[in-house]
């Protein structure tokens, strides 16, 4: 039963990174919105929708059945990348989680992650830590994108196995890919980063501990570097 579905800007930008005709896994699929969208738009029809919790997976199954795509989308209960062990998956989506959790999911099954042609990652936080992990652990970031919903800017990171160029500290916070592509939302991302750092500095400056002073100084240096990037756009 075909029904109309429109993704949010964030989810549509994630889906846009999927290559045509490949086998994909959506880790932490929740309602299976992206898998359903990919099938409905004839992007790919061989999808594994995975989740660690039975509740969200049952919700995904109901959504898949509602759209009549149970032959195209297989649901699997399991933790991280374990459900797709031994399967030939070309694109892996891990979205809507914290960057540290995404890092742990990849690290726990790094052979599976490196066997994929493409990792499509959308961290909700700690984006810089995820970039640092990828660059320092045998991955190369091949593309980045941004999406806006209301006032929030979301970052999408696409990576694959490979030797990365070296990154300066600022590169982990503001992606060189976004600068090179002159992404139209980059200025908004930079403004958001500046506000975040100013808030941290203000909080640290109210304390007199060594760690607070150290953190404040580090953030002030980073803030100036981010402002310099903004001035060069």
TrEMBL record:
One of its GO terms (molecular function) is tRNA (adenine(22)-N1)-methyltransferase activity. Keywords: Methyltransferase, Transferase. Gene3D superfamilies: Vaccinia Virus protein VP39 (3.40.50.150). This is SAM-dependent methyltransferase. The keyword Methyltransferase applies. One of its GO terms (biological process) is methylation. The keyword Cell cycle does not apply.
């Amino acid at each position: 039963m075909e029904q109309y579905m429109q993704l949010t800007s964030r989810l549509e930008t994630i889906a846009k990174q999927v290559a045509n005709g490949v086998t994909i896994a959506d880790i932490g699929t929740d309602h299976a919105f992206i898998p359903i969208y990919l099938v409905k738009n004839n992007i790919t029809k061989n999808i594994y929708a995975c989740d660690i919790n039975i509740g969200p997976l049952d919700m995904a199954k109901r959504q898949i059945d509602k759209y009549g795509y149970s032959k195209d989308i297989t649901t699997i209960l399991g933790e991280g990348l374990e459900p797709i062990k031994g399967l030939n998956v070309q694109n892996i989506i891990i979205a809507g989680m914290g960057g540290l959790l995404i890092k742990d999911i990849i690290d726990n099954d790094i052979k599976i992650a490196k066997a994929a042609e493409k990792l499509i990652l959308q961290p909700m936080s700690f984006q810089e830590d995820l970039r640092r992990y990828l660059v320092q652990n045998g991955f190369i970031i091949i593309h980045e994108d941004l999406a806006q919903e209301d006032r929030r800017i979301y970052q999408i990171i696409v990576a694959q196995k490979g030797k990365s160029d070296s990154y300066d500290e600022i590169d982990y916070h503001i992606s060189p890919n976004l600068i090179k592509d002159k992404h139209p939302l980059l200025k908004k991302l930079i403004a958001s980063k500046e506000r975040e750092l100013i808030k941290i500095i203000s909080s640290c400056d109210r304390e007199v501990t060594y760690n607070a002073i150290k953190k404040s100084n580090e953030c002030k240096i980073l803030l100036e570097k981010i402002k310099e990037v903004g001035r060069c756009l």
